[in-house]
Design goal:
The protein is mainly alpha-helical. It contains 14 helices and 2 strands.
Length: 314
């Protein structure tokens, strides 16, 4: 058969029961692992909730690969590349039996999520592997390395792992004005800075220090202090600085809400309120994230969720 008469392969389409199963798997992953996101998803219409559960499950798989302590850094990169190749094949219409990829590609088609954004999510998690390896080689503190020299360096990482998530979310939420995009990017920065402040101790235990080197130096601090028993009072001014940056970015989140479709506004409000409340709870504890991990209680989240449901009904 000549090239000109060859039939074009028909893209494979999963059967409806397969998609139901796939979305159910993603929902289970999100309910188990997404301690904050899942509450916001509950306020969304079902289709949009399912789509964001698929996105979260994809992100979770990327994170699990890059954080796998049983694999070397080169092995983690190889596994992440293979996972991304699997995504690309599924996006091209090739059959897959991976529930996450089934749901994600369906959600991507349904809400016109740009493929480049999903790639960038994976690239962001890969930064943890690549930056950790290079920083460890240059580190003078065995077992711990500063990942980023300046806040602008950190901001690029936050963009890839959080701002891009915001851009994916608004495609699912729905928006008409392009101004929503820059606001979503800044809102993502607020969430990631909050996570970094909360997880300083946990990240140090994994050999990572996301606090910028220039900020540590500004307050005469070193990463070596994170490996022993850090004095919360010494780190308080530094963490307060990062918190002030996050608060500025949260203002963009407030501005974003009116730009997205009305059926999704309560969910975004819940998400912003949960993360902002977490930041203020850390501040109320004088930024002591070393004695115990700070988090919102289930009751605190349910109270915010209840207000979100009221906003959806009005």
């Amino acid at each position: 058969m000549s090239v000109g008469t060859q039939q074009v392969p028909i893209p494979w389409t999963p059967a409806p029961p397969q998609l139901v199963m796939a979305y159910s798997v993603c929902k289970g992953i999100t309910r188990t692992a997404a301690k904050n996101f899942y509450y916001a998803f509950l306020v969304l219409p079902r289709r949009k909730r399912e789509a964001l559960c698929a996105v979260y499950a994809f992100m979770r798989r990327c994170d699990d690969i890059t954080d796998d302590p049983k694999s070397t850094l080169p092995e983690r990169r190889q596994k992440l590349d293979a996972w991304l190749d699997d995504l690309h094949r599924a996006q091209q219409g090739n059959p897959t039996d991976d529930a996450i990829l089934l749901a994600l590609t369906d959600a991507q088609r349904r809400y016109a999520i740009p493929a480049g954004l999903l790639d960038e999510l994976a690239v962001g998690t890969a930064m943890d592997v690549e930056e950790n390896e290079s920083a460890a080689q240059a580190s003078t503190t065995p077992g711990l390395a500063v990942q980023y020299k300046t806040f602008e360096d950190l901001r690029l990482y936050c963009y890839r792992v959080a701002s891009v998530v915001g851009l994916v979310c608004i495609h699912v939420f729905g928006y008409r004005d392009p101004a929503a995009e820059s606001l979503a990017e800044r809102c993502g920065l607020a969430f990631q800075l909050t996570n970094i402040i909360r997880d300083v101790k946990e990240d140090a235990g994994m050999g990572r220090a996301y606090l910028p080197e220039e900020d540590l130096a500004k307050f005469n601090l070193s990463v070596a202090e994170l490996l022993s028993a850090p004095d919360p009072a010494r780190f308080r001014p530094l963490l307060a600085l990062e918190a002030d940056r996050a608060r500025e970015f949260y203002q963009s989140g407030d501005e974003l809400i009116p730009y997205i479709f009305e059926d999704s506004q309560p969910a975004l409000w819940v998400l912003i309120t949960i993360y902002r409340s977490l930041l203020e709870k850390i501040a109320a504890k004088q930024y002591d994230v070393f004695t115990a991990k700070v988090s919102l209680s289930t009751w605190e989240k349910l109270r915010i969720l209840g207000k979100g449901f009221l906003k959806r009904l009005t």
